Amino acid sequence: MNVKSLKFTFGAALAVVMMAGGAHAADAAAPEKKVVRHESKLDKKVPQPFWVQIPPSKETLESTKIPRTADGLPNIFAEWVANWRTIAPDGREPRELRPTDRIKPEDFASKEKYMEFVNRDMSTNPANRCIPSGGARIVSSPYKLEIVRTEEGARHQKVVFLNEQYSIIRRAYVGDFKIQPNQEVRGQWGASNGEWQDRSGDGKPDTFFVKTTGLNGSWLEQPGLTYDDGTEFTEEYWLSEDGNTLHMLETITDPKTYSKPIKHHIWWSRAKTDAEAVHDEYICYVESATPELLLLKYNSAKK
Asked: Which keywords does the record carry (predicted)?
């Protein structure tokens, strides 16, 4: 079994184990009037799973110090490596969940929606049939991510996300090339528009903001949460001060299913070697992706 197969087995097996717990974090706080970008304080003792939003520290990111491109944009255009140890202490064992990590009945828009979640059929997980994850789910994948863009100053600018998992390509359209409201776009990954924002107020862009609509409905996260076809999700990308960590805050808004927006904080490390920068071939075999077989392989790997 090659490395990529092992990654898939451990990652998917962990998903099976975590499904029973329904791990998730919902954001109940109202947004502040003044939006400020913060650095996140990572817990060094207990590795955090990538689907849990980590409370930010009070340290404000100074956008004047981050590495920039020749035209002044935050240089997020690189190969980024997800740390599998952020999922669990040794990459396989699920970490102990905090009470705030679990989704609660009051997080749903109605009792009916909550009961749909309670009685969900885990065998319908698209990943069990090697169907690529859609929309909001793919951005939380703990695989490598490469970000590129069209040439500087291009009128039809695109920021392109190349995901190692399923070899998925996502495009965020910027400037004059943005998808307009009258353009009906609906699909598994929806339609994404992006813009550069100045969150620190120093006159320089420090955040790449992406808004996605037009989703056709799919599984939201590993525990089996779903979303409606009217769901909107946004991504905010920013760099650590030294430029070696890419942070992303994802906000999912689906008033038909959930009573409040759900937020995730995810991060990647900049690839340091040529080997890290190479995307592995991602191959998924349907016969190896059943929950029962994955759990069996997971238990065998622990021995």
From this structure: Plasmid
